[in-house]
């Protein structure tokens, strides 16, 4: 009533005016004494402060004699009390027939200016469509009783508000999620099949589909039984969460016996579905593998190998590979699919970390686990952390390009540029410089003069993906050739020629060493620790980063492709983009291994080569340049790339028909898709662009390898085919 306050009193002089002030506010008109009383209304006191307000009344008789002033005090309080806090429910779900009581709803009342609480219930926050505001049963909790007309699964939100002694009410607060009512059993899933991996103490991996609830499904539970119901259970009910497969543990199985996996659904209120079951026969599993060993270690992967154990009369159909952090991590299954291959490469590991591995064979049942093999991934040097590139090739005039907006570029720890997508920055560089970006980038530069061809080389800086322990290379056009390595910890680096140790060097941590080689031949570079490596002729011809050897390579044999092996002979199969079947051959380490191309300047078909053992490869420089470029291991391909200088052409190769979005400097975009004409599954996809502007960015939906040829001597060596590094 702050805008229409009323007050009244008594008086003696009928017909005379009574002068009234309410907190200093004079009503207009003033009241008149009538039958010894007066009253006035409609006084607006909204501008007066909270607290005490004094009301005065004065009165004169007809001759001007004044009565004694009448006074009184009132209190103005229009402030709502503090809000109730911490609304809590004893349960999120209720079940049973209607009418039904709610869970207990409780809260914390304000400490001051509080008289009692009011509660309400609705289908929205602060809603009152179920129960309107009413005084709570208890001072700090309330149960809504005899609720009827509820709808299953619908959330109902209890609310509470504070009321002070003057009747002021807080806004109110609701429980954030409310409670729901459910009185319908869930639906059981259907078991579709079981894997053949049961052991004497565990059931097979059971796979199911379906299973649902009208409201909220909480979990599936599985068990093993000798009957198709729970009367013959030989295990406890075990939660499978909401997964679509699971394994029952803690059983004792007998070979040749029939068992059932049984399953049920349980919803959020605790209601339980009927059961479904699936029968299976436990057979004698294969023997345990006893010779599991680590065969290859990498920065983020370790390859393991073993021989086939005795299958005990039932053929082996798969091997299950598990790994964990050494010495006591949680075992996890590596998802390598169904395979009888006796090699497995576990990927996605962390650098410089020790892992344990175990394998078991499957033939309808699963063998016991093998011996545990232990391996360690490669060094976690600061260079391998973050987005960095290392100028091992010795570029002196470099250009960096950003793939994304807001990229800070640091050179040896000092910010030299802030770039948006497609922006480039040219700078003077030196060997062993390190570029780091806050976001992805590409950097390359020129070493030598601006004369072109034999006077200079285009140097792609080296990234962490290209580090390793084993590298392969050859040279047959220029001599001498320099192979520079960078060690991240003290490393013994050996050079093998024709499979025989040729020279070696212990390289201290954080230093380089250059091997000067004069004899045309095939070479293998082997290090006991992680290194990066770069090859260059003294005239900067055939200059490119060395890639660690792998079994699966992609690239362009521009004119010709040359390949190297560490193990000879190595059988290989290769596919062009236009072939329907693979072409087989053998690589040696005593003579050049070549595969012909179908065009020059990277215009021909892409080539994919898979060896029985690790291999490496490179193109032969075209007639318009002196530089070769390496093939890329398939596992090194990435999705996102950018060119840093104007390019005569850019070539894309992948094992997938990747769709690529091209973003030109200035923001215009277009798309293209890699293609092939061959029908062999292994045939690579490719695409070639010409006249590509500096700062063009390429983002693909699948991984690919990318090469380019600069068409400038500014920050690049003109007409030198070069591999790009990219990012996911």
Provide a descriptive summary of the structure in words.
By secondary structure, the chain is mainly beta. Strands 39, 40, 41, 42, 43, 44 and 45 form a seven-stranded antiparallel beta sheet that branches. Strands 46, 47, 48, 49, 50, 51 and 52 form a seven-stranded antiparallel beta sheet that branches. A hairpin with an 8-residue loop joins strand 21 (258-267) and strand 22. The two termini are 67 Å apart.
**Quick one: biggest sheet?**
7 strands, antiparallel
**Radius of gyration (Å):** 41 Å
Kindly report the oligomeric state of this protein. single chain
Low-confidence stretches are none
Report helical residue fraction.
Answer: under 10%
Overall shape = flat
Annotation, overall tally of beta strands: 59
Please work out how many helical segments DSSP would assign. 0
Structural class: mainly beta
- Kindly, what is the distance between the CA atoms of the first and last residues, rounded to a whole number of angstroms? 67 Å
Mean pLDDT: 93
Strand content is over 45%
Brief characterization of the structure:
By secondary structure, the protein is mainly β. Helices cover 0% and strands 47% of the residues.
């Amino acid at each position: 009533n702050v805008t229409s306050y009323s007050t009244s009193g008594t008086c003696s002089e009928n017909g005379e005016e009574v002068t009234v002030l309410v907190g200093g506010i004079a009503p207009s008109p003033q009241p008149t004494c009538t039958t010894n009383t007066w009253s006035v209304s409609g006084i607006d006191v909204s501008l007066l402060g909270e607290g005490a307000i004094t009301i005065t009344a004065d009165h004169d008789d007809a001759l001007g004699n004044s009565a004694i002033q009448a006074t009184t005090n009132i209190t103005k309080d229009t402030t709502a009390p503090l809000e109730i806090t911490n609304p809590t429910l004893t349960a999120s779900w209720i079940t049973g027939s209607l009418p039904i009581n709610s869970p207990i709803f409780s809260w914390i009342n304000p400490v001051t200016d509080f008289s009692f609480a009011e509660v309400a219930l609705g289908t929205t926050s602060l809603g009152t469509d179920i129960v309107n505001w009413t005084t709570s049963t208890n001072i700090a909790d309330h149960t809504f009783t005899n609720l009827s007309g509820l709808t299953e699964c619908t959330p109902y939100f209890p609310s509470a508000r504070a009321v002070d002694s003057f009747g002021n009410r807080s806004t109110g607060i609701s429980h954030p999620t409310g409670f729901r009512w459910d009185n319908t059993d869930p639906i059981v899933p259907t078991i579709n099949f079981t894997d053949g991996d049961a052991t004497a103490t565990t059931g097979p991996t059971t796979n199911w589909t379906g299973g649902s609830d009208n409201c909220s499904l909480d979990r599936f539970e599985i068990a093993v039984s000798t009957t198709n119901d729970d009367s013959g259970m030989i295990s406890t009910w075990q939660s499978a969460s909401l997964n679509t497969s699971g394994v029952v543990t803690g059983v004792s199985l007998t070979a040749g016996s029939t068992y059932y996996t049984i399953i049920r659904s349980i919803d959020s209120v605790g209601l339980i579905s009927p059961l479904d079951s699936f029968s299976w026969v436990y057979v004698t599993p294969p023997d345990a593998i006893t010779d599991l060993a680590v065969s290859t270690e990498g920065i983020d992967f370790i390859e393991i190998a073993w021989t086939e154990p005795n299958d005990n009369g039932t053929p082996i159909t798969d091997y299950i590979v598990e790994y964990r952090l050494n010495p006591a991590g949680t075992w996890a299954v590596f998802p390598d699919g169904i395979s009888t291959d006796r090699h497995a490469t576990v990927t996605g590991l962390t650098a410089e970390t020790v892992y344990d591995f175990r394998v078991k064979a499957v033939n309808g049942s699963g063998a016991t686990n093998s011996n545990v093999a232990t391996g360690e991934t490669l060094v976690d040097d600061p260079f391998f952390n973050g987005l960095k590139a290392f100028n091992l090739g010795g570029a002196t005039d470099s250009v960096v390009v950003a793939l994304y907006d807001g990229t800070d570029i640091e050179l040896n720890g000092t910010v030299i540029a802030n770039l948006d997508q497609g922006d480039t920055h040219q700078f003077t560089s030196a060997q062993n410089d390190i570029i780091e970006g806050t976001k992805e980038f590409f950097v390359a530069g020129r070493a030598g003069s601006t004369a072109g061809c034999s006077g200079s080389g285009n140097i792609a800086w080296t990234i962490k993906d290209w580090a390793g322990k084993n590298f392969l290379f050859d040279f047959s056009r220029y001599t001498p050739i320099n192979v520079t390595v960078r060690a991240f910890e003290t490393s013994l680096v050996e050079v093998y020629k024709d499979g025989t140790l040729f020279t070696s060097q212990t390289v201290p941590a954080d230093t380089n060493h250059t091997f000067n080689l004069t004899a045309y031949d095939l070479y293998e570079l082997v290090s006991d620790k992680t290194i990066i490596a770069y090859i260059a002729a003294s005239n900067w011809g055939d200059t490119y980063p060395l890639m660690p050897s792998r079994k699966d390579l992609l690239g362009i044999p521009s004119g010709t492709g040359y390949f190297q092996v560490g193990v000879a002979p190595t059988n290989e199969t290769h596919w062009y983009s236009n072939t329907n079947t693979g072409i087989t051959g053998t690589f040696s380490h005593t003579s050049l291994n070549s595969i012909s191309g179908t065009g020059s300047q990277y215009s021909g078909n892409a080539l994919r080569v898979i060896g029985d053992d690790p291999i490496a490869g490179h193109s032969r420089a075209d007639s318009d340049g002196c530089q070769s470029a390496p093939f890329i291991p398939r596992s090194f391909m990435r999705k996102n790339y950018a060119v840093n200088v104007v390019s005569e052409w850019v070539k894309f190769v992948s094992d997938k028909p990747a769709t690529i979005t091209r973003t030109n400097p200035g923001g215009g975009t277009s798309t293209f898709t890699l293609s092939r004409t061959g029908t062999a599954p292994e045939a690579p996809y490719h695409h070639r662009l010409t006249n590509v502007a500096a700062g063009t960015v390429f983002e693909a939906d699948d991984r690919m390898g990318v090469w380019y040829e600069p068409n400038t001597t500014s920050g690049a060596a003109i007409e030198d085919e070069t591999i790009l590094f990219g990012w996911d």
